[in-house]
Amino acid sequence: MDFSCTNQTTLTVSTKYTLNITTNYLYNENVYVWIYYNNDGVLQSGEQIMTSLNILTTHTLNFTPPTSGVVLNTPLRMRVMDEYYAYTVTSPCQNLNYGQSEDYTVRFQPNIIAPNANFSFTSNSCSGIANFSDLSTNNPTSWLWNFGDSNASGSQNPSHTYTASGTYTVTLIASNAYGSSFYTQTVTVNPLVFSIGATGAFNVGQNITFTTSLTGGSSYVWNFGDGVFAGSQTAIHSYTAAGTYTVQLTILSGSCANSQTMVITVAGPLNVALTMKNNSEFSVFPNPFNESVNIKIALKSSSKISSGL
Ligand SMILES: [Ca+2]
């Protein structure tokens, strides 16, 4: 069937279109579509735009006419062929067994239209991470994202991490040689972001105080890395052996949970050296605040020692 005189359409190059072809509802069909883009009477690769095999009723194609190799503003033939699924079609000039061939007319116009900006996004409120997907039409060539928190990106599909709770207005400006447009949406996040720290003497037997920047969490779990845990916002812990420990704090707040880790190095016992009046020395270890200590006395000259312990 030749519909090329009566069924004509005009499409814009480098613009996405969806082509739906409906075949009968009794049998699966194969559908093939060609567009004679460069109008030279010969099929080049890229001029067959659809091969839809063994489908019942609805054959769908998303396609974008290319910017090169297309004769513009000229009636071009689009040939649609369908065939019973058991028969393969390899050429638009082929005879069909049970199928049908139809011709239509397509004109292509150049894309001289500014983009129509649009985007979608997914976000994780707990982590503050938002992933943006460009949906702009009319062939943008550059993108400028403003995330609403003084950060920006020039990527087409950026990710961004918000570090503070809030509702942010995100703006995308999509541009090409013919102009630009913008689109905005708001992103709301409530990220559970915190830091941890430790103060004290990093020696065996000494109290180390562990703190976090986040208050108001519903639960806190400190893992000191030596098999000991604590469940308070601020925790005090002393290590019994020298070494390097990975300390982790997990905080639960609302429906969000997050963890932070830090590595600390704990040295051996503190030695305290004192100088006595008679110019002798003694040292006290491992920990003057433990229940028992060792006192080592080195005498520089023979003299009488008395201890008050
Ligand atoms: Ca051709």
For this entry, give a set of tags:
single chain, 309 residues, mainly beta, Immunoglobulin-like, four-stranded antiparallel β-sheet, 49% strand, elongated, binds calcium ion
Q: How would you characterize the overall build of this protein?
A:
It is built from no helices and 24 strands. The protein has 309 residues and is mainly β. It has three domains: 8-109, Immunoglobulin-like; 119-189, Sandwich (Immunoglobulin-like), CATH 2.60.40.10; 196-266, Immunoglobulins (Immunoglobulin-like), CATH 2.60.40. The strands form seven sheets. Strands 1-7-6-3-4 form a five-stranded mixed sheet, with no helix packed on it. The protein has a four-stranded antiparallel sheet with strand order 11-10-13-14, with no helix packed on it. Strands 18-17-20-21 form a four-stranded antiparallel sheet, with no helix packed on it. The model has no long low-confidence stretch (mean pLDDT 90). Calcium ion (CA) binds next to loops.
